[in-house]
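Quick question, first post here. What does this chain look like in 3D?
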Amino acid sequence: MTVAGSDERDATLSARRAERNARWEERYADNDRFWSGKVNATLASVVQTLTPGTALDVGCGEGADAVWLAEQGWRTTGIDVSPSAVARAASAARDRGLDETRVRFVAGDADETLPEQTFDLVTSSFLHSPDEDFPRITILRAASERVARGGRMLVISHAAPPPWARELSGHAHDMRSPAEELALLALDPHQWHAERVEVVARDVVGPDGTPAVLDDGILLLRRK
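> Answer (accepted):
Ran it through. Tokens below.
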């Protein structure tokens, strides 16, 4: 590829990224609160078995998981592309009496602006997008590089569409099993050990108020 061709490709990718990020910002800005404000039960069930240290939450949204981590003793950083989501997360932390020595939030693109330091735990929950070119695996690989030696990466994902979905939306293509995602990550087996690669059921209440069960993927990896 010529230099001009490479520059054109980079410009196209940058423009797509900007458009994608703008859509997420619009999504949050158009709602007073998008999520419940409660920690994801699957993440909590895994993390409560770990010893607190430093943590990075990639794609933190309105900060429920990051705030919960801080309350469990983790010194936490959350990052999200939406400034509105990050502002809401910081406000939620202050309301819970958590200052920036316990949890802080950064607005930025996870495939460009992850913090330089390493962490004992790097988490990512439901980092899905309706955009077909969303670089999920690229972001997760970058996140893995922020895991300290002896630390862990925890990826919680949608392993299947919800039972009330009559038609699969455009993001259905990245609803992979944890085993499929582990294969795509292609991490060095000499540096990483897979502690949990499984799908678990989570009880929820559907949009119509009836009980439902969701399939959550768990990928828990320890850096040797």
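DSSP finds six helices and seven strands in the chain.
The chain has a mean pLDDT of 87.
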